[in-house]
């Protein structure tokens, strides 16, 4: 199986996203382990413990973890770009929710923003890969 540059980039983005998601899931259940700034507008602790950090009783970090695990699996599917784009689009909805949540709180979580950026980059990379097939 030939691995193209887009697949390599996607793999790197997904691994980074998995690492960030695992960390956020861990600190959701063990907040004392959180390492971040809590001064001014940057306050990760406030963001990840806010009412917006749990949806249907499940922490957003768990949703992110599942999203990146599925993305990893999708890397091994040769075709079916529609599923890849659709799943990546679901990630964009999560990014919008994250951005609105942080706006409503008036605080930013650097780990959450990093995850949001990775999700957007995965979507863009899929679009570029499909365009250049």
Describe the structure.
With 133 residues, this protein is mainly α. The chain has a single domain (5-131), classed as VKOR domain (de novo design (two linked rop proteins), Up-down Bundle). It is built from five helices and four strands. The strands form two sheets. Strands 1-2 form a two-stranded antiparallel ribbon. It has a two-stranded antiparallel ribbon with strand order 3-4. β1 and β2 form a beta hairpin. α1 (5-29) runs antiparallel to α3 (60-74). It is elongated. The two termini are 15 Å apart. The model has no long low-confidence stretch (mean pLDDT 88).
The helix/strand class is: mainly alpha
- The tally of domains stands at 1
CATH hierarchy class name? Mainly Alpha
Number of helices: 5
Question: Largest sheet, order of strands side by side?
Answer: 1-2
CATH topology: de novo design (two linked rop proteins)
What profile does the largest beta sheet have?
2 strands, antiparallel
Global shape: elongated
Number of strands: 4
**What is the CA–CA distance across the termini?**
15 Å
CATH architecture: Up-down Bundle
| The CATH homology group name | VKOR domain
Low-confidence stretches: none
Radius of gyration: 15 Å
Instruction: Specify the helix fraction band.
Output: 55-70%
Strand content: 5-15%
Mean pLDDT level: 88
What's the order of the H and E elements? HEEHEEHHH
Would you kindly provide a brief summary of this structure?
By secondary structure, this protein is mainly alpha-helical. Helix content is 69%, strand content 6%. It has a single domain (5-131), classed as VKOR domain (de novo design (two linked rop proteins), Up-down Bundle).
